[in-house]
Amino acid sequence: MCRPQVSLDARHAADLGGGPVIDAAAFGALEALARDDDPDLVRDLIALFIDDSAQRIASLKRGLESGDAGAVSAAAHALRSSAANIGALQFSHACADVERCGRADEVDLNELRAIGERTCRLYEEVVAALSAPGN
Questions:
Q1: Angle CA(14)–CA(17)–CA(18) in degrees, nearest 5?
Q2: CATH of domain 40-130
Q3: What pLDDT was estimated at residue 4?
Q4: Which of residues 44 and 15 earns the better pLDDT score?
Q5: Considering 32, 37, 82, 101, which has the largest number of Cβ atoms within 10 A of its Cβ?
Q6: pLDDT for res 11
């Protein structure tokens, strides 16, 4: 199997928590799903995540700009699971925070924007780690 070159040792910037961008154990579980009969499974899942998440993060950013908490929450919800599946656990947790903040009874748009912007920065690091040379 041709293993994708994912940067498993990359760490988020200190102001983003400093944890691993891609969790090695979670990514390893994903790799374990790949069988000899489907050697491109991991590469295909990475490509699918990057394509789909680009659209979702764009929706999240539009929602942040317009102050549409419902749109922000919906985009974060969609990103949360797929991020966890690919091993981007810190990003997944950030998406859960955005989702909760956007669904609060009384949404604080300033707080939502701050959490959302941090989540967008985490996303950029995830994409960079998944797009390491050779992927």
A1: 55
A2: 1.20.120
A3: 55
A4: 44
A5: 101
A6: 83
Residue 2 is predicted with a pLDDT of 47
Half-sphere exposure for 103 (CA within 13 Å, toward CB): 11
The contacts of residue 114 (CB under 8 Å, 6+ apart) are none
List phi, psi (to 5°) of 20.
-65, 140
What's the whole-model pTM score? Answer: 0.88
pLDDT on residue 5: 63
Nearest CA to 85 out of 135, 132, 126, 115 is that of: 126
- Residue 49, both tokens: 């995540």
Distances (CA, A) of 3 to 31, 38, 121, 135: 9, 12, 26, 9
